[in-house]
Design goal:
It is built from 9 helices and 8 strands. The protein has 358 residues and is of the alpha+beta class. It has 2 domains: 227 residues, no CATH class; 90 residues, no CATH class. It has a 6-stranded antiparallel sheet with strand order 2-3-4-5-6-7, with no helix packed on it. Strand 6 and strand 7 form a beta hairpin. Helix 3 packs parallel to helix 7 and helix 6 crosses helix 7.
Length: 358
């Protein structure tokens, strides 16, 4: 690595971490002022506030705005270099524009790998502690689903429950039906079903079971039966943004299970999976756009470059939100929805790169 590489990498990473650290402090101050009443009313311990909530909040926040601050950092220090005629001096010394891009992309690749690691491995672990604290002292993250719950446990096997109490893991007016093609072969009805967390089994109370074999029907009745079902209590209530607690492998496994059960919620988890893959690439795209846009020395200097950069960033975020809505509530495939903004802005970056002064 040459001196110019080290110089640009230090500028890039230094600006990035300095800017995001300042914003983290500001956000934490505002969050404390907003939640201080909840902390006092619910008697949250000080060490839990600091270490369980805010320390674990930092990786989540860094990753959430990683590509945004990558872009702002590139725009800021590159436009200052252009205003100080440093880029002109670099190019005049015989270094090509393409060679000058090397330290930018070394830094961007480092941040992209960091973003991928945070999103898929570190944040799911820190989120478990952070969300447990938030659920206890700030807001309830879990809520019961509406009454009359319908689920598909596996192909051809359906579950109905009139209501479910997540405090004691008890369901009422429970029915399970199994079909072969369109023919009913088994049906069980019970007054109550209770989850035993020790044995990981369901206790079914006051039940009637019907087994249908051709023209023969067998009816069994009982007051109690312990059984295993392809069903856990967490599927019977909604936990806000539960995917935040899942590592990449756990998320993939969860998606396969939900697809098997025919869950309509699986699209949200697919979007999360593909966003985790697409977001690190956005860091590279934003670096490409940022250096191409801000390497030109123009009247207005840093302010003009920052204004254009922030405008492009918010356009990217808006476009990403629009495609997410089309995927979750429409027919747009989640992989396409996650990657379309990157592809469009990548071509914008290529155009800006071609027009950049070299």
């Amino acid at each position: 690595m040459k001196t110019i590489d080290i110089y640009i990498i230090k500028k890039f990473l230094g600006t990035f971490f300095y800017a995001i650290s300042l914003l983290i402090l500001v956000v934490i101050i505002f969050d404390v002022s907003e939640n201080i009443d909840e902390f006092i009313d619910k008697e949250a311990p000080l060490n839990a506030i600091i270490f369980d909530y805010y320390v674990n909040f930092i990786p989540y926040f860094v990753n959430l705005f990683s590509y945004l601050f990558t872009f702002i950092s590139v725009i800021y220090f590159t436009s200052k270099m252009a205003a100080n005629t440093e880029i002109v001096a670099i190019l005049s010394s015989g270094i090509s524009f393409w060679r000058m891009l090397r330290p930018y992309f070394i830094s961007a690749i480092f941040l992209a790998i960091l973003s991928f690691y945070l999103a898929n491995f570190l944040i799911p672990h820190t989120s478990q502690t952070r969300r447990t604290f938030a659920n206890r002292y700030i807001q309830g993250l879990a809520k019961s689903k509406d009454e009359h719950i319908h689920l598909q446990m596996s192909p051809g096997t359906f579950v109905y429950m009139e209501s479910f109490n997540m405090k004691n893991n008890s369901g009422y007016r429970f029915t399970i039906e199994s079909f072969e093609d369109t023919r009913l072969v088994y049906k069980l009805m019970a007054e109550k079903i209770v989850w035993d967390s020790v044995t990981a089994k369901w206790r079914i109370e006051n039940y009637t079971a019907r087994t249908i074999q051709d023209t023969k029907e067998i009816i069994q009745k009982g007051t109690r039966m312990d059984t295993t079902l392809n069903l856990v209590p967490s599927e019977l209530y909604i936990k806000k943004e539960y995917y935040e607690e899942m590592t990449f492998s756990v998320l993939n496994h969860f998606i396969r299970q939900e697809e098997l059960k025919g869950s309509p919620e699986v699209v949200f988890y697919k979007m999360e999976k593909h966003n985790r893959l697409a977001s690190p690439f956005a860091t590279l795209v934003m670096t490409l756009i940022g250096v191409s846009l801000s390497s030109r020395k123009i009247r207005g200097g840093t302010g003009m470059h920052l204004g254009l950069g922030i405008l492009l960033t918010f356009a990217y975020i808006l476009f990403m939100r629009v495609t997410t809505v089309f995927a979750t509530y429409g027919n747009l495939p989640p992989p396409l929805a996650a990657w379309i903004p990157n592809f469009i802005f990548f071509f914008i970056g290529i155009y800006l790169l071609k027009t950049a002064p070299k």
